[in-house]
Design a protein that fits this description.
two-stranded parallel sheet; 35% helix; 14 strands; alpha/beta; 12-stranded mixed sheet; Peroxisomal Thiolase, Chain A, domain 1; 334 residues
C-alpha cells in the first residue's frame, strides 16, 4: 500500500470484494434494476412500528444475507464499517448491535458506502484484517421526516429534488479471492461552492465529484477511457449534467461511459422521482446489486465508483448555512 499523488492510495495487493447483498423498498422494487436486488420489500415498514426501526431491520437483514452468501462464518469478520443518514447513525448502531463484530460507525452522508470500502480496504491490505464488512442504509420516509417535511403535509417537491432510496447495500472485503478487486482509493476533500438549496443536492455535490475525479486522473495518470464505467453515487439528473459539463471544461470527456446511480435506480418518467435517487443506499444498492453482477460476469472489467455526500443536517439548513460536499472514489478492476 502506498500513497500516489495528492489524495490516492494504491493497493499493492488489491483487495477482493468477496460478496455483496442488497435489500430495497417498494419504489426501488418497481425500478429498472429490481431483478438485481436480493430482496424487494412490499412496504416501507416491513412489520415494524416506525420507519426508523424498519431501516435498522433492513441493514441488519442485508448484513446477514451478505454473510450467508459469502460462505464464511460471522466470527471470521474482523471489523464492520457502517453508517446511515439518521442523527448519530442510529439505523446502523441499533440494527447491528447484535452483530458482535468490532464496529466503526462512519458518516459521509451519501458517500458513506464508498468511504467504508476505502477504509475497509486499508485495513485488509495492511494485514490488520482478513475480512471486513462495509454497509450502509437509508430510508425515504425517515430521511424526509428528519431533513425536510413530515410526509403528512404532502408538500410539493421541486423538480431538482431527489428521492431518498429505501434500502441497504453491503460488501464483504477479503484478502483472498478471485475478484473483483479494489486497486485504488481516492479520498475526497470538502468542497463548498455556497449552494444553500436543500432540494438541489446534485448541484451542491457535483463540484466535490469533479474535484475527486480530476484528482484521481492526475494521481493515477489515467483518463476516462481507462474505465468501462464511471459511476457517481447520487448526483441525479441535475448533478450528472453539471459534472459532465464541468469535466468537459477541464479537458475530460466522460459522457460516453459515465452514469449516476441515482439516475439508474428509478424510471424517471413512470416513477415521478424528479431528479432521481439519493441517500446512502443509492450507491450501496446499485453497486451491491447491478454493478457487482456486471463485474462478476466480466461485462465490466474496470469501474470507478465515486459516491458523493452533502455534509449538512437539518440544523445547518435552518440556520442558512451552505451545503458542503464530499466525494470518495474506489477503482474496482477484474
Amino acid at each position: 500500500m502506498k500513497k500516489i499523488g495528492k489524495q490516492t492510495i494504491k493497493f499493492e495487493n488489491p483487495v477482493n470484494i468477496l460478496n455483496t447483498a442488497c435489500i430495497v423498498g417498494p419504489k426501488e422494487s418497481d425500478g429498472p434494476l429490481a431483478k438485481y436486488f436480493d430482496k424487494c420489500l412490499e412496504d416501507e415498514f416491513w412489520g415494524e412500528s416506525t420507519w426508523e426501526k424498519a431501516e435498522s431491520k433492513i441493514i441488519k437483514e442485508t448484513v446477514n444475507t451478505a454473510i450467508a452468501k459469502s460462505n464464511i462464518s460471522q466470527d471470521k469478520i474482523d471489523f464492520c464499517f457502517a453508517g446511515d443518514l439518521l442523527n448519530q447513525c442510529i439505523s446502523s448502531s441499533f440494527g447491528l448491535r447484535e452483530l458482535n463484530v468490532p464496529f466503526y460507525g462512519i458518516f459521509g452522508a451519501c458517500s458513506t458506502f464508498v468511504e467504508g470500502l476505502s477504509l475497509g480496504s486499508v485495513f485488509v491490505e495492511s494485514n490488520v484484517a482478513e475480512h471486513v464488512i462495509c454497509c450502509t442504509s437509508s430510508h425515504f420516509c425517515s430521511a424526509e421526516k428528519q431533513f425536510r417535511f413530515p410526509l403528512e403535509l404532502g408538500n410539493q417537491r421541486p423538480q431538482s429534488s431527489q428521492w431518498t432510496v429505501t434500502g441497504s447495500g453491503v460488501a464483504i472485503l477479503s484478502k483472498s479471492g478471485d475478484g473483483p478487486f479494489i486497486t485504488h482509493t481516492t479520498v475526497g476533500k470538502i468542497v463548498d461552492m455556497g449552494i444553500k438549496d436543500a432540494n438541489n443536492m446534485g448541484a451542491a455535490m457535483a463540484p466535490a465529484a469533479l474535484d475527486t475525479l480530476l484528482t484521481h486522473f492526475k494521481d493515477t495518470g489515467r483518463n476516462p477511457s481507462y474505465y468501462d464505467a464511471i459511476l457517481t453515487g447520487d448526483l441525479g439528473y441535475v448533478g450528472k449534467e453539471i459534472l459532465i459539463e464541468l469535466s468537459q471544461s477541464n479537458g475530460y470527456n466522460i459522457k460516453s461511459n459515465y452514469n449516476d446511480c441515482g439516475v439508474m435506480i428509478f424510471d424517471k418518467d413512470s416513477q415521478d422521482t424528479h431528479s432521481g435517487g439519493s441517500g446512502c443506499a443509492c450507491c450501496g444498492t446499485v453497486f451491491s446489486g447491478y454493478v457487482y453482477k456486471m463485474l462478476r460476469e466480466k461485462k465490466f472489467k474496470k469501474v470507478l465508483l465515486m459516491a458523493t455526500g452533502a455534509l449538512m443536517n437539518s440544523t445547518s439548513s435552518q440556520q442558512g448555512e451552505s451545503i458542503p460536499g464530499i466525494a470518495h472514489a474506489v477503482s474496482i478492476e477484474i
